[in-house]
Amino acid sequence: MTLQVKALGRRFGEKQVLQQVDFSVGKGEIVSLLGTSGCGKSTVLRALAGLDSDYEGKISIPSDQRVGFIFQEPRLLPWKTVLANATFGLKGDRKENEEKARRYLELVGLKEAEKLYPRELSGGMAQRAAIARALVTEPDILLLDEPFSALDAFTKMQLQELLLKIWETFGTTIILVTHDIDEALYLSDRVLLLQGRPSTLAKDLKIALTRPRSRGSAALGKWKEDILDLLEGKEQTYDYSLVTEIGQKA
Amino acid sequence: MWKKLRTHPVLLGSLLPIVLLAAWEILSRAGVIPAYQLPAPSAILSTIITYLQDGSLQDHVLLTVYRLFVGFIIGTIAAILLGTLVGYSELAERFFDPLIQAFRSIPSLAWVPLFILWMGIGETSKVTLIAVGVFFPVYLNIVDGIRGVDRKLIEVGRMYGLDGVALVRRIILPASLPSFLTGLRSGLGLGWMFVVAAEIMGASQGLGYLLILGQNTYAPDVIIASIFLFALLGKLTDWVLKIIQKRSLHWQDTALAK
Ligand SMILES: Nc1ncnc2c1ncn2[C@@H]1O[C@H](COP(=O)(O)OP(=O)(O)OP(=O)(O)O)[C@@H](O)[C@H]1O
Ligand SMILES: [Mg+2]
């Protein structure tokens, strides 16, 4: 297990947002975190990243694992150009870093934009620059908070492919927060469903489909239907042949 | 003609000063304003030229600018060191800030007698006074700037393994640069005020000395000439800072950025 979460809870003042969230993620797994807006997905990710330490419960990540984070917003440093932002997380020789950063900028389609400042970027460009900044550091564990939600359908697809390519190359462990059920199903080995007030882990679903998956396939369509039902609370329509209960894998 | 006047960047703004200056010149020459109270602009200009020709004006200006510069640098450095520390560390804030705030509530000119008592009327007391004047606006703006740094950017720094000095250097200082530069500009403004005060309290050279000289020799032209030079120099130095500010903040996404 690369990452383990035990009885994770978080309260803000009076309001208990998360309670008793348990899950673990194996090395090289892609896991999506799904749930309605405001249910605490970002909160889970911030705790995993070590940005928030006021949680209850226990999170363990081996200390040799370098963690990368792609935030819900671009968070580029406004005083640096796109290229300088992309090299921000790299250490060592500047020339080499810039070469490497340029490769990743090209992969996210920002080759032409390296000299621009953040104020000169569109929302989607800024988000892609932020994605390049995180990917270039080649982290062992990559946490992504709705990374593609600001992008058009086509760019989104390209970047999903990029994510899979990086996963194949480096065996990155990926935890992805998303609103997009199609995205979760297309990318993930498992989908975790956060539900309730306070949120708990309602389902831990293993998406036992081989890769490469085809978008819009019947199998994914079936899954999507089932997950939508689950989100609505219509448990009974669920095809339990595909489901495993919390914490177990099929 | 009217359209050009309306749209030209300086034309409209310089109209009133020119008219007033002309009226002043005419009224002075006609003897309506007595010359021993307010000499004509041309008389003031010729005073400046006389001082320029015998080289004494250059010495006065240089010495004043030199005092200002040294005081400004010392005040700024002290403000950067303390401001960064207090802005960044809550512990340092609780330790230093109450004292600094207490000192801030002393009108800085009230220090003058004490400084003279301690350091005499030489350069040290003058430079100290200027440094004290410059310190506060710069300090306050640095502390404010650091406090105001977006938590989200600090988190980016932490995600990439920065903390302590590295975090200050790579995220906090650049992010608070706008506020720091605003502080520098108001610090410089106060610096000019204090250089006048310092030179009035006793100097044998400098623009402020010319003010006193003019007063003691009943020479309003000398007083107005040095007031004019103070204004000119103040504007000039502010302009330099403004250019630096514009250059180093070109990345800012503000309504005024082009
Ligand atoms: N710093 C904070 N202080 C107070 N409440 C907070 C704070 N951060 C989050 N919350 C609350 O915790 C809850 C979960 O927030 P979180 O940002 O994790 O939601 P989310 O699932 O990521 O939502 P979205 O999908 O809209 O991004 C929200 O109700 C929010 O009001
Ligand atoms: Mg969120």
Account of the 3D structure:
Chain A: InterPro entries: AAA+_ATPase (IPR003593), ABC_transporter-like_ATP-bd (IPR003439), ABC_transporter-like_CS (IPR017871), ABC_transporter_ATP-bind (IPR050166), P-loop_NTPase (IPR027417). Chain A: One of its GO terms (molecular function) is ATP binding. Chain A: Residues 3-221 form the ABC transporter domain. The complex is a heterodimer of chains A (250) and B (258). Chain A folds into two domains: 3-66 and 139-246, P-loop containing nucleotide triphosphate hydrolases (Rossmann fold, 3-Layer(aba) Sandwich), CATH 3.40.50; 78-138. Chain A has seven helices and nine strands. Chain A has helices at 41-49, 82-86, 94-107, 123-135, 153-170, 181-187, 218-232; strands at residues 3-12, 15-25, 30-34, 56-60, 67-70, 141-145, 173-177, 190-195, 200-206. In chain A, strands 5-6-7-3-8-9 form a six-stranded mixed beta sheet, with helices on both faces. In chain A, strands 2-1-4 form a three-stranded antiparallel beta sheet, with helices on one face. In chain A, a hairpin with a 2-residue loop joins β1 (3-12) and β2 (15-25). Chain A is globular, with a radius of gyration of 18 Å. Chain A starts with a strand and ends in an 18-residue tail after the last helix. Mean pLDDT of chain A is 87; it is low at 243-250. Chain B is an all-alpha fold and 258 residues long. Chain B has a single domain (41-248), classed as MetI-like fold (Orthogonal Bundle). Chain B has helices at 2-7, 11-29, 41-53, 56-88, 90-104, 112-119, 123-147, 151-159, 164-200, 207-216, 220-248. In chain B, α6 packs across α7 (123-147), α7 (123-147) runs antiparallel to α9 (164-200) and α9 (164-200) packs antiparallel against α11 (220-248). The model of chain B has no long low-confidence stretch (mean pLDDT 90). Adenosine-5'-triphosphate binds next to α1 of chain A.
